[in-house]
From TrEMBL:
<keyword id="KW-0472">Membrane</keyword>
<keyword id="KW-0812">Transmembrane</keyword>
<dbReference type="InterPro" id="IPR010131">
    <property type="entry name" value="MdtP/NodT-like"/>
</dbReference>
<dbReference type="GO" id="GO:0015562">
    <property type="term" value="F:efflux transmembrane transporter activity"/>
</dbReference>
<protein>
    <submittedName>
        <fullName>Efflux transporter, outer membrane factor (OMF) lipoprotein, NodT family</fullName>
    </submittedName>
</protein>
<comment type="similarity">
    <text>Belongs to the outer membrane factor (OMF) (TC 1.B.17) family.</text>
</comment>
<dbReference type="Pfam" id="PF02321">
    <property type="entry name" value="OEP"/>
</dbReference>
<keyword id="KW-0564">Palmitate</keyword>
<keyword id="KW-0449">Lipoprotein</keyword>
<dbReference type="GO" id="GO:0005886">
    <property type="term" value="C:plasma membrane"/>
</dbReference>
<dbReference type="InterPro" id="IPR003423">
    <property type="entry name" value="OMP_efflux"/>
</dbReference>
<keyword id="KW-1134">Transmembrane beta strand</keyword>
<feature type="compositionally biased region" description="Low complexity">
    <location>
        <begin position="494"/>
        <end position="505"/>
    </location>
</feature>
<feature type="region of interest" description="Disordered">
    <location>
        <begin position="478"/>
        <end position="505"/>
    </location>
</feature>
């Protein structure tokens, strides 16, 4: 039997070298429609943006981003999905090995009549103890092995491994999204604080204007129209503050939830007014192909395509014979010392082949091929959307900075005009309508400059994330500790993912 087992295993090892289905081939940048250069002006040299939030030189922003990365509930869900994918890979790999099971037993047989001793009970009843008994000890070992002759097991493992990597990249994509959303709401909150301060500063000036108009009305220099215009302008400015405060409350609440806390947890801490964070003057984007390799969503789509390709092989293998091997070894003895004296065993190998199934198996192959086509189209679509995100963020940053420069000029001119108009109105050289228009222009210029600065900071955040900043793209993210301490950033474990030259991965 041992020789037969050796010959059988050798034969199956030779057959197991046959793996059906297409081997996965990474697509090149040309096949995916990736251009050699951007259609907009961008810095050609790429920078290390793993911790892009440090580029703003705002400790509060950095702390909030890292706290969100550690405690956000969406990130925790992505970690759970990654752990599930890793366990699925462990289960797939287990099918590469035989299944072994052992058994043991003890049985006592008693002969209750004849040949034994007897004794009399107090009531006179005679009880026969039987003619003795026999012990039986048994030990067994059984094994079974599903041989993937045509590679169905190896293709399943290949698909599971790709899904693990895709889940890792999905986790990184969620992480980047949470970091971006936290930073964006922080910038929004600081911008709203600045707009509220602008409105309150204008209220102070408008209070003075209302007082001056009242004096001039009392002196008979002007009609009550001036004081009514001053009162209406002040009320309109004051009416904008509650709306801004409501938006500020929403942004602060959102930051609290993003960091895994109650909506009001950070309101007291972030209540003091701080300036809008200012990022670096230039951001190195690099060429399109390099930027896309940093995008976790692009890499997740590529790994999903690899898994779908492997599933074609799994489906095709079902068209061919399947080999199963099973065997067992047993021994029985009357005493423990006799175990092993007599051993029996059996070995069975069986082939199964689908003969007629109404075309179901071939339909499954075609369905998997269609799924691979869908995954390829999704991969290409993700690449194109990533290119769109990057170019839109580049243009948004450029236009926000251009607006910031122009609003700075407008603010200087509006401030000078307002000062002159206020002086002339006091001297009676101009009417209140002119002063009112100049004060409104001053507030608009202040808010315009504030909004442009906030838009520039938000565009920088969007660009950092669009080009894959916030994680180490040379690694496949692993699940961080189940309970992460606040302020920590889960570190991925390196796994080689370097693509061949000229290929997108």
């Amino acid at each position: 039997m041992t020789r037969a087992l050796i010959l059988l295993l050798a034969g199956t090892a030779v057959l197991a070298g046959c793996t059906v289905g297409p081997d996965y081939r990474p697509r090149t940048a040309t096949e995916l429609g990736v251009p050699d250069a951007w259609s907009v002006t961008a810095a050609p040299t790429r920078e290390d943006l793993t911790r892009w939030w440090d580029r703003f030189n705002d400790p509060t922003l950095g702390r909030l981003v890292e706290q969100a990365a550690a405690n956000n509930t969406d990130v925790a869900q992505a970690v759970g999905r990654l752990r599930q994918a890793r366990e699925a890979l462990v289960q797939s790999r287990a099918t590469l090995f035989p299944t072994l099971s052992g058994s043991g037993g003890y049985q006592r047989n008693e002969n209750l009549r004849g040949g034994g001793r007897s004794f009399t009970l107090p009531d006179g009843t005679v009880v026969d103890t039987g003619g003795g008994g026999a012990n039986n000890f048994s030990v067994g070992l059984s094994a079974s092995y599903q041989v993937g002759i045509f590679g169905e097991v190896r293709r399943t493992v290949e698909a599971s491994r790709a899904q693990v990597e895709a889940s890792g990249y999905d986790y990184a994509a969620v992480l980047l999204s949470v970091q971006s959303e936290t930073a964006r709401n922080y910038v929004l909150a600081r911008g709203l604080q600045a707009q509220i301060a602008n409105a309150r500063a204008s209220l102070g000036l408008q209070d003075d204007n209302l007082e001056i108009a009242g004096f001039r009305v009392q002196a008979g220099l002007v009609s009550s129209l001036d004081s009514e215009q001053a009162r209406a302008q002040r009320a309109q400015t004051a009416a904008t503050i509650p709306s801004l405060e409501q938006q500020l409350n929403a942004a602060l609440s959102r930051i609290g939830v993003l960091t895994g806390q109650a909506p009001g947890a950070l309101k007291a801490e972030l209540a003091p007014v701080r300036p809008i964070p200012i990022g670096p003057a230039a951001i190195g984007v690099g060429i399109p192909a390099d930027a896309l390799r940093q995008r976790p969503d692009v890499r997740a789509a590529e790994r999903t395509l690899a898994a779908a390709t492997a599933q074609i092989g799994v489906a095709k293998a079902r068209l061919y014979p399947a080999l199963a091997i099973s065997g067992n070894i047993n021994t029985n003895a009357a005493s423990l010392s006799g175990i092993g004296e007599a051993i029996t065993g059996s070995l069975f190998a069986g082939l199964t082949q689908a003969i007629f199934n109404g075309g179901r198996l071939r339909s499954q192959v075609r369905a998997q091929e269609a799924a691979a086509d869908v995954a390829l189209a999704a991969y290409k679509g993700t690449v194109l959307l990533a290119l769109e995100d990057i170019e839109n963020a580049i243009v948004a940053l450029q236009t926000a900075r251009a607006r910031e420069r122009e609003f700075a000029v407008a603010l200087d001119a509006a401030n000078n005009s307002a000062v002159l108009s206020r002086s002339q109105y006091r001297s009676g050289l101009t009417d209140f309508t002119t002063l009112n228009q100049q004060e409104a222009a001053l507030l608009n210029a202040r808010n315009g400059l504030t909004q442009a600065r906030a838009d520039a900071a938000a565009a920088q955040v969007a660009l950092f994330v669009a080009i894959g900043g916030g994680w180490d793209a040379s690694t496949v993210p692993e699940a961080p500790p189940r309970v992460a301490a606040p302020g920590t950033n889960p570190a991925p474990v390196p796994v080689s993912t370097t693509p061949p030259s000229g290929e997108m991965r």
